[in-house]
Every structure is written in C-alpha cells, then in structure tokens.
Amino acid sequence: MTVAAVKPAAPRRRLRPTPGLIAGLTVMAALLLLALVAPWIWGDEAEALGGTPYLPSSSEHWFGTDPQGRDVLARTLVATRTTLLMCFGATAIAAVGGIGLGAAIWVAGPRVREIGQRLIDVMISYPAVLLAMIVAAVLSPGAVTSVVAIGLATCPAFARLTTNLAANIAARDFVSTARLLGVPPLRLLRRHIVPNIAEPLLVLVSVAFTVSLKALSGLSFLGIGVQIPSYDWGKLLADGLQDIYNNPAPVIGPSVAIVLAGLAGGLIGDGLAAALSPNEGGGRARGDRAKVKAALGALDASAAAGAVAVADDLVVSLPDGTRLVDGVSLSIAPGEIVGVVGESGSGKSLTAMSLAKLLPEPLRSDAAQLRVGDLDLTGNPSRSRLATEIGIVYQDPSSSFNPVLKLGGQLTETLRVHGGVGRGEARRRAVEQLKLAHVTHPEARMKQYPHELSGGQRQRAMIASAMLTKPKLLIADEPTTALDVTVQAEVLKLLLEANERDGTAILLISHDIAVVSSVCDRVLVMYSGRLVEELTAGQLRAKDAQHPYTRALLAATPAVDEDTEPASIPGRPPQPADRPAGCAFAPRCALVRPVCHEERPLLRITGTGSRAACHVVGEPAEAGAPAAVEAGAPAAVHETSDVPAGPVLPEQGAAQDAEETAR
Amino acid sequence: MTTRVLELDGVDVSFGFGSRRKHVLHDVGLTLDEGRTLGLVGESGSGKSTLAKVVVGLVRPAAGRILIDGEDMAGAGRERIARLRRRIQLIPQDPYASLNPRMTVGDALAEAIDPLRGRAEAHRDTIAALLAKVSMDADAADRYPHAFSGGQRQRIAIARALAVGPEVIVADEVTSALDCSVQAEVLGVLRDLRASMRLTMLFISHDLAVVRHVSDEVAVMSGGRIVEHEQRDRIFASPQHDYTKLLLASVPDGKPLRERRGTAVSK
Ligand code: SF4
User: Fold this and answer.
1) Is residue A91 located within the same domain as residue A193?
2) How far apart are CA A241 and CA A222, in angstroms?
3) What CA–CA distance (Å, rounded) separates A486 from A484?
4) Mutation test of ligand 1: which of A525, A591, A595, A656 has the most ligand atoms closer than 8 Å to its C-beta?
5) Residue B265 confidence (pLDDT)
6) Distance of CA A527 from the midpoint of ligand 1 (Å)
7) Based on the domain organization, do A395 and A488 belong to the same domain?
8) pLDDT tens digit string along A546-592?
9) Inter-chain touch A565–B188, beta carbons under 8 Å
10) Cα–Cα distance, A431 to A422 (Å, whole number)
11) Count: domains in chain A
C-alpha cells in the first residue's frame, strides 16, 4: 500500500491546456457565475414595468428599454440562467440519449447494428433545427418542448460517433481478450469501451452545446421557443428586432451574449480536441545537446571518393532538436550491398530515408555530406534525378502501390515523366523488368490492379519498378518483413540478381540479422540513432562481433539450427531525447566503465578489422593486439568535455587504465 | 501417465457460402498432453490462426470434435462454451493492443481473476504472485500499460492468461511484433513458466527458429491441413514432408545466399 502511496499511479494522458481552451473555460465560468447570481441582483429591475418604453441607449439603460419599458441589459443578464439551463438541458438529452442509443445499437449485435447505423445516417442528414421546429409545432410550444426537441434532434450525431468509436475500440485485442475471459457485455462497455471513447465524446458535448445554443435561440426568435412571461436571449433578440430601425440598442445585448457563449463553447471544443490529440503529447522541448562533431562517424576518405552513396555526419532531428539519428557516416561502394541492422527506434530507416530525400514531416536532416552519385542531397536536388537514380523497395508491398490504378501505368510513370521515354518503349521495358523479377504472366499483370497480385508477386513487381530506371542505388527498407519465409528467400535472391546483373548498389535495412548476413557484403549496426559497429557479413555470420551491443543482439537471436537459448538484453533502449551522455548503450552494457558514462565512444578499427564505437573494444588487455588505431579522418573534438583535442585515443586508453587500477 | 488436455479430431472450417465457399481447415487432428508445448508453424493463409480461434472457441467448426479434458466443445451450448472457454486462454499477438490503456495492470489482472466483480484491491496478493511469475514487481499493478515496454506488456498479457488458471495457453504469434532482444525476454519468461508450472501450450508462430526454442513437438500446417507432426528434434533433424523441407530450407541461417564476389568490403 505504501508503495502505491509513494509512487502514485501513472497519470492518464495529460491534458495540456491551450490558450483557446483557457479563454473558453474562463468565459464559460463567468457566464455560469452570472447565471447563478443575475436573477437575484437584477431580477426585480428586469421585471419592473412602468419605465419609458423604447428608450435608446443611455448611461442609465446601456442597451435601452423594451416595449414594456424594462431595462434590456438587466433582462439580458437575467436571461443567462434560462438560456444556459436550456442549452445544458438540450445537450444533456442529446448526449445521454445519443450515447445510449449508440451503445445500444452497438451492443445489440451485427444485424441490428447495420440497420441502426443506416437509420442514424438518415437522421443526421436531416437538419436538426427543422426537426426541432416540427416537434415544437406539433407539441405546444414552450421552453421544455424546445429543449426536448433540440436535444432529440442532436442525438443522432452522438449515436453515430458512439457506434463508430465503439466499433473501433471493440476491434482491439484487449476487448476480445476480455470477452474470452468471460466479461459480460455491459461491464465490457463500461470498463473497456466507454473510457476509451470518452475524450472525443467530450469534444462533441461542447460542440453540441454551441449548436443547441444557436438552435434554441433560433426557436425562441421564431416564437416557438420560450413563451411569455419567460424569456431567454433568443426571445430578447426577437423583442428588440421589432423596432430595430428606430432603436437598434436592445438587439445588441442579447446578440453579444449569444456570440460570447457560442464562442466559449467553440473554444472549449477546439481546445479539448487539440489538448487531447495524442500527437500533441510527449516531445519535450530540449536544447541542442552536447555537440560532438564530425569525427564521430569518421568517414574513410578513400572509401568515400568513389562511393555511389555517401552520408557524412548525418543528423536527423525533430523540430525541438531531439536527434533521432545522431551523427551517422556511411559510404556505399559501386555494386556493394550494405546492410543496416538495428531494433525499432535505432534510426536505421530514417538513415535510409534521408538518402532518398523521403523524410516525413517535420523531421529534418543535416549532414556534412549527403549524396548519391554526384547528386547532392543537402540542397534541393532535381526531382527527376531523385526518381531515376534512387530506387526504393518498401516493407509493405500492398501500400506501396496505388490500389486504384493498374500496375502498367504505375510502372511506366517514372520512366515517362522523369526519364523522357515514350509510352510504348516504357511499356516494353516494364514488361522486361517484370520478367527479370520473375513475375508470372508479366504482360497480363500490366493490366491488373495491385490487389489482384499476391504479396510476393507484388513485392517482385515493386522491385521491378524500382529497377526500371537503372538506379545507382537501391534502398530496400525491410523488403521481406511482411512476407512468408519461403517467399522471403525468393525475394532476397531477386535482390542479389539485380545487384549482379546491373551492378546496382543496395542499401538493405532489416531488423533480421540472419537476412542481412546472408545477403550483404558489409553490415552497419545501429543503436539509438548511432552507428555502433561496422563489420563484414562474414564476421557477423561467424558471430565475430566486437561491440557489446552487437554481441548481445547476436546472443538474443534464436537460431533455427542451434539449441542455445536466446539471451535477452536487460533494460531497453533510451528514448532519443533522453540518450545518456557518453555511450548510449552504457545503461545496459555488461562491460561498462566509468568513462562510458562521460565520453561518447568513437568508431575505430578493432583487432579484427571491423570498426566499433566502444571504449573497451580494442583495449590492449582485451585484444592482446596493439591499441586501437584511429579510423582515419580528423581527430575527435569534444566540445563539451575537458579532454584536449588532438591525439585522443592513447590518452583515453591511459585514463581507462588508471581507472582500472583505481578499482 | 500423461493426461490429454486438448484433442482436435477431424475439424473442418469453411467460410462463405455456395460457390464462394472456402475451406480454411481440412480434417485437422491434434493432440496436446499436459505439460507439453506444441509449436504450430505455417505461412500466412495456412490456417494456423483459424485453428487458434477454433481452439479458444471464437470460431465454430463445421465438423469435427474439440475435446478439452475429454469434454466436447463443438457440441456444447452457449453456457458450456463460456465455461470451457476460460479453461483455454489466449495470449494475443500485439502487446500494444491487448491491454486496455485506461485500466491499471492490477485491474486488468483482477478482471481475469473474476470477470464479474474483479477489483485490484480485492486480489492484491494473487496479483502480486502473478506478476512475480512473469518476473515483474508487485507495484506494476498500480500503473497503466503505457508505462511498460513491449516486452513487459507481453509479460503482463501472459500473467493475465495465467490468472485464469487455464489448462491450455494458446500463444498466437506472441513474439512477432517484438524486437529481437525483447523477443528473447518473452521467450525466457515462457521457458521458465514451462519448467516451473508444467504449462501446456499451443505456440503458434511463423518463425521456425522461435518455435524450435519453445516447443517439445512441432506441427506444420499448409493449405489448411497439418502436413507433419513430430517431436521437435526429429522434425528439425529429418523433416519428412516436402513442405517442411522447403520451409526449413528457406529460413535464412546467415549463410551467404551466393558466393562472395571480389568487390566485397572495401576497407
Ligand atoms: S563504450 Fe562502454 S558502455 Fe558503451 S558499449 Fe563499450 S563498454 Fe559498453
């Protein structure tokens, strides 16, 4: 119990009030206060007959007097209570009735649901005010009648939202699991469904308030709402309007009141919607953290010279400065297949997408150098060169094609638009590529829609499409993750064929170490937005990795031909905004040293010829070989640490030794 | 002597009517003994997910018998099915979708213990014991699912399945949405539970490597049929059916798909 008291239950999604929401709530609070006190303070004045009728605005009667000589300002203030009560009444009827109806329809089962939803659709298309007028006209007009009428007329909107949201939530696993557990339907609704749809419904409530305010005022204005001697704002408006040409003042009071209340409702609605929207949460602003400069990725200058693709000190960041990719450098040689492995959130896809200039908003990339061939990606590269020189294969073949267009048009589009190739020639080449990709019946496929192909065939067509323009670089982002294992093997072979036939360099992104090591020449391992190791596929296959993270990852991967139990890695990767100073893997690393918490390790060549970013790897004690050699490129410059610039590594080694002996 | 906890016999399932009728399961027979884990592998469309639904009672077969502890589920009425259902618990695939974000972990577990009136306060000790079984601290009960990682959530989902005290646990692709290191964590929990509780489990996965590490025996599905069902070691060492062989050969084992060319690794 004490534990619970000390550590309070995690809050639900935090509500972050926007200025609009605060303004709306303030105005609404003021109106409520007014509704509470006005009848006591100004009640008598508002009812007092015998004044001079039709007075214009004066210091005594700000908004003049009505035909019976009563003060319009006082009457407007007093009418706040009636008006708000009616609005709340109507909103309550709409919300309770609508949500109830929606829930009932949803609980009732598939057939009733179908009919009910149709019915609601019809009701929604019927204007609420019109419906209310009919109801009010049929029953005897009055405050209660109009409240009920407007309330009922707004029900369908709630009902529809409720059924839609409920259907959405009900499809989630936790609801079906609860069913399996034997949770009865009503409890299911109350505990699992309603709490998860409460937020949008709350927004709708505030919208309904505004709508009913307008509608109720309208009804009173038309004379079928509130009846004498009661009055609300709508009624006051109607009274004032009778003599508007001679005396406009009495109209102003109720008009201002209606607008103000309506505005408050609207602001609250918008504010709630914005405050509750999930993508508003998280994302703490954070200044640019420790800038560790170019030497980090330490690009090998000689390798970069002839490379088909180069990224040097690539940083992908959120608008608040959080670095999702933090200083990655890589180069891909002509005809080379380079793999990037890492777990979700490691930044591997973002790295690849930067090389294709396809980062989603609002991410931005910065790099000392970012190019494919001689196409500079840091500026504003030509779209047609991007389209023809970089081919992309995505994970999900079903979403990478437009479902409503035939394959033929989609396959030939890039060639025709960006390659300046004629229709017939483009077609011929597309068919040829489909053949090369082993798509069955290539001619016929051109006339088919994407959904008519199986997942494997679609992914082949995707590869064919990517290879059509003979790109310099093919980026394959988890190309086989959505595929069955037998199909995966074929698609991987296909990538190899394309590489061998046209000499296309490939950047293969995958979470699967086995996939990467069976296809690639060289593999980059990413962790928390950084490159931690670069090794040959042969080394990876032989489990000859140096970096502790790569080793842990290898140990966690179950093998189909071995009985060793996969070992989990304690903890979890840091959020990019909370990446620790020093080595990002330090909190989970078995070999961690004090220096790891302070200093970001650089990529340097290890005893086996791979490159690893780790303070411990390559130490004399460990490797038995000469101390780590610096991996080409400029020396490390740590702007934020006290380590002097210049030949860093030997000093580092000495520092570590000192620490070791100290222990 | 071992008890036969689950037995499927000649189960047929088809969807649709008339000419569009599609057979999803053909004459499927399976047996599962107490304390054993049966790995069910197959590719998408092989019918393994439908089979899972049949076993937990979400899909009713057109023909065949499903015996739980000898009791026939296929012929049972609504009420009996509801009762039998609790004896088989499902761990769903996606740990992010399988926990109600608005319910504390404690409440979620309490609901599994008592679906009618369960409250976290009433079952504090049981909940703590359940969490301990999946190596989680008792104070996890007071928190909401969003405070946990994918692996922890999946452990909570396992604890919830255990809360019912089921005879059989059906784990449907429970690790396929997880990262490799997290997958290892969940597999570790399942491994410990199998040893400590004599868990009886139907473990469904498309990943042969994972199945190998969890199962005592393996059944391979293809086209709605079970094509091979063997002891784990035998199926991996000497697969008999052609499809099993193909499946095993397709798993990337890290061996290069082609001979290295001269251009490799420019250093
Ligand atoms: S630098 Fe330190 S913490 Fe990081 S991987 Fe190497 S030993 Fe572990």
Assistant:
1) yes
2) 11
3) 6
4) A591
5) 35
6) 12
7) yes
8) 999 999 999 988 887 777 888 888 888 888 888 888 899 999 998 89
9) yes
10) 14
11) 3
